[in-house]
Design a protein that fits this description.
- A hairpin with a 2-residue loop joins strand 8 and strand 9.
- Strands 1, 2, 5, 6, 7, 8, 9, 10 and 11 form a 9-stranded mixed β-sheet that branches. A two-stranded antiparallel ribbon has the order 3-4.
- The two termini are about 35 Å apart.
- About 25% of the residues lie in helices and about 20% in strands.
- The protein has one domain: Spore Coat Polysaccharide Biosynthesis Protein SpsA, Chain A (Alpha-Beta Complex).
- It is globular, with a radius of gyration of 16 Å.
- By secondary structure, the protein is an alpha/beta fold.
């Protein structure tokens, strides 16, 4: 189950640092993967309307409201339209010309853009608009509270979910990924040095990649 299994309030497991220590957090950059072709949706899922905003804008706004940053958005398919959807937001766009080869290439482009000052990267999928800033902060804080963790992942309903935080020590392994493989594959590389954070927010399990998933997101976002 990783570093001590599911992270609970047990003193032998890494605990989040106090509020006073947040200013000393290692910098965790954010990578929003927004390059895919949305083959299951039939249209660009990132640009679909969700309560008056494109799906991807909800995602990026949540990241910007968290303690992760700076924020990099990896574009590919319909890149100009994605950039327009995020107009005015404090992000840096990096383009993946090989996006058709799968998610791994976008992760590689994103990791290459992470500044040397960042100790880790939050890997956020651009089609997960129900992930809250609070969940992101829990992941970032738990990485900061551990001296051994190489990755942090949320667990909901007994399953590992997204987004994932990966420490710089895993960046080299990204180059060996291929196809439609994202950051969760790196958890195998991290071995026992993974912190699993139990969350009750089902947004970490919902990616808007079908019309049915979009309809569900519409319902849940409106609650």
């Amino acid at each position: 189950m990783g570093t001590g299994g599911l992270l609970m309030e047990i003193f032998s497991r890494p605990q989040p640092r106090s509020q006073a220590e947040h200013a000393n957090h290692p910098q965790v950059a954010a990578l929003v993967l927004a390059a895919g072709r949305s083959s299951r949706m039939g249209s660009n899922k990132l640009l679909e309307d969700l309560h008056g905003k494109p799906v991807v804008r909800h995602v990026v706004e949540a990241v910007l409201a968290s303690r992760a940053g700076p924020v990099f958005v990896v574009t590919g398919h319909q890149a100009p339209d994605v950039c327009v959807a995020l107009a005015g937001l404090d992000v840096t766009f990096v383009h993946n010309p090989r996006f058709a080869e799968g998610m791994a290439t976008s992760l590689q482009v994103g990791v290459d853009a992470v500044p040397d000052s960042s100790a880790a990267a939050l890997v956020m999928l651009g089609d997960m608009p129900l992930v809250s800033p609070a969940v992101i902060n829990r992941l970032v804080d738990n990485l900061a509270g551990s001296v051994t963790a190489r990755a942090v992942v949320p667990v909901a309903d007994g399953r590992r979910a997204n987004p994932v935080v990966i420490a710089r020590s895993l960046f080299g392994a990204v180059a060996n990924l291929s196809g439609d493989v994202g950051a969760r594959k790196l958890l195998d590389q991290a071995g026992d040095d993974v912190i699993e954070v139990m969350v009750t927010d089902e947004g970490v399990l919902i990616d808007v990649d079908t019309p049915e998933a979009l309809a569900k997101a519409q319902r849940l976002k409106g609650q």
